[in-house]
Amino acid sequence: MVQDEKAAHADGADEQMLGSNGVEDKLAERRDEVKFIKGDHQNGDAKIDIGTVNGGKPAFTGMSKEELMKYANDPFWVRLRWIFFVCFWAIWVGMLVGAILIIIGAPKCAAPQPLPWYKRGPHAKFASVETCRPEDVQVAKKLVSAGAIYELPAALTYDVKKPEVEEKIKHLVALYQGSDTRVILDLTPNYAAKNSQLVQDAIANPEKRSAFVWVSGGKALPNNWLKVGGNRSAWEKVGDNYVLSQFEDGYYDLKMNSTIIRNEFGAVLKHLVALGVRGFRLKNTKFFALFDSLEDEQISSSPKDFSLGPNEYGFYSHRQTTFLSGLGDVLYDYLSIVKNASDEAFFSVAEDVMEPQVYQLSGDSGAYGIDLPMYGNFVKVLSKSKPDTSLQKELDNTLAQSGTDSWLQWNLADVYVDTPQDPSALAMFLSLLPGVPVVAVDAVAYQNVTEETYRQITSLRKTASYMHGNLNLYQADPLVAFSRIKSGNPGYFVIFNPTELPQASNFTIPDNLPDKMTVSYFSGQYNNNMDNSGKVAHAGRVNLKDLKVAPHSSIILTYVPVKAE
Fold first, then answer.
1. What CATH number has the domain bearing residue 219?
2. Which of 57, 235, 276, 332 has its CA 20 to 30 A from that of 408?
3. Residues 6+ positions from 280 with CB-CB distance below 8 Å
């Protein structure tokens, strides 16, 4: 009893510790009433009924099976279940169909398009339309050329609709019918002969004289302009008038931005396209007459020859008659005519543009008014026996000045006849630069390079790394090299040695280039210029750090970029 009283006293103390100020213990708030109900007497079963007291709320126990079965076959609930079932699968199928349509309709990453034919090249350069012959087709085949270039005599430019001239052009196009080579014409559109219909119309009708640089009623020469490269006045007397004639006597300069000439020359271009010609290169573009001003030429501040006098062409700067503002826009106008006549045709120049910015559009910085510009002296510098400048810097300057995205014509006719460089080495190196090689069939680049070499070049030019790859230049003087690489494709590393001795390829190799590469191709005389230890073999592996490049030779290596860690 004493013990119980102590325990009771302790319980009271505990209760005081658990709560105070009349706040009851939460655990004691709920009190359940338990009832035992007798069940089956034989089995001794009993039911236990747990109730609540003190106003407690009964716990939710849900519906029993018997209660649920009352609704199992109820029409309302059966219909509702079917509605939910159908809606679930309809939504599921709808999401599946939607996902498929999104996949099908989503914009796809367009596959890189192959280069247009005139950018694939190379192009074979022949002489005149009047001297074409069936043998030319085999010459073009040796070069695996995409285009065959012929010159249309200047006097025939505006006579292409005459039957005799038209027949010559049809004959030329027919020669290449069925081959992969397309016909390209070099045209001289900037002057017309005295007996041409254009000049006769201008003499008879003063309104037609806007097609020429025509000064009416002058007694004295309009200015001090001289014939190109000569020492005589560029003005010719026609009746009581003076007409500009910068080139041959009896040929008068045309204003290439006049409406009359735009219509006339545009008609010439469209007619030639209809005859089957697929490319045009214009001559004398830097002399295109676009002016209204007839100011005197100024003395050149840096003449090539200080012994020249006022009657010599080289004495003047010629800023009034060459590289005139708006030239790019005028050329683009003719380019549009050609593209509208045939979307596969191209329109370019036949000579070095010299001042690339003049050939660019006035409203679109960097964009040219022509398809394939020709610029720079890199081919000449490359073919020198002893280049007097860094080849890497010369190449970098050429590409930078012409525009990083430009696709140049590499004129292999600029290769020096007495070059010590292996012509196949020059052809390989130039053909993998951005641009298209133009090979004159009477030049060393044709005569001393095999058909197999050009086939190798063509196969490389069709790869994704060449057509759409990035260009990176490398230098290890006196060597010059570059790489072409497109993500997901093998890259090419091209090296040229312009010297007469083997040179170590001590390039500073970036992290994405491997040390070892595979030999793809090399120039024809490569192994002949090396001892046994330095010779290479097709598909052989070389270490770039240990490689010595043969004299006057090129080598093309293939590599897989190193992934950055």
1. 3.90.400.10
2. 276
3. 184, 185, 186, 187, 269, 272, 338, 345, 346, 347, 348
Q: What is the mean pLDDT of residues 395-415?
A: 92
pLDDT in tens, 410-433: 999 999 999 999 999 999 999 999
Q: Which domain holds residue 217?
A: 191-253+290-323
pLDDT at 186 exceeding the cut of 70: yes
In terms of pTM, does the model score above 0.85? no
Asked, for residue 541, whether it belongs to a domain, the answer is: no
Q: Which amino acid appears at position 493 of this protein? A: F
- In a domain, residue 202? The reply is yes
174 assigned to some structural domain: no
Instruction: Provide the pLDDT confidence category of residue 62 given band limits of 50, 70 and 90.
Output: confident
The half-sphere exposure of 551 on its side-chain side, counting CA atoms within 13 A, is 11
Query: Does 247 map to a domain?
Result: yes
d(CA 423, CA 431): 12
Of the chain, the end-to-end C-alpha distance in Å amounts to: 84
Q: Both tokens of residue 510?
A: 């970036």
* CB proximity list for 389: less than 8 A, separation 6 or greater: 381
- 98 in Cβ contact with 106 (< 8 Å): no
Q: Please state the domain count of the chain.
A: 2
pLDDT at 18: 42
Which candidate, 458, 473, 483, places its Cα nearest to that of 555? Answer: 483
Same domain, 82 and 198: no
Residue 105: Cβ-neighbour burial (10 angstroms; 0-12, 13-18, 19+): exposed
Distance set, CA 453 to CA 40, 265, 456, 502, 530 (Å): 108, 39, 5, 22, 20
Domain endpoint, select from 88, 104, 120: 104
Q: Are 137 and 160 contacting, i.e. CB atoms less than 8 angstroms apart?
A: no
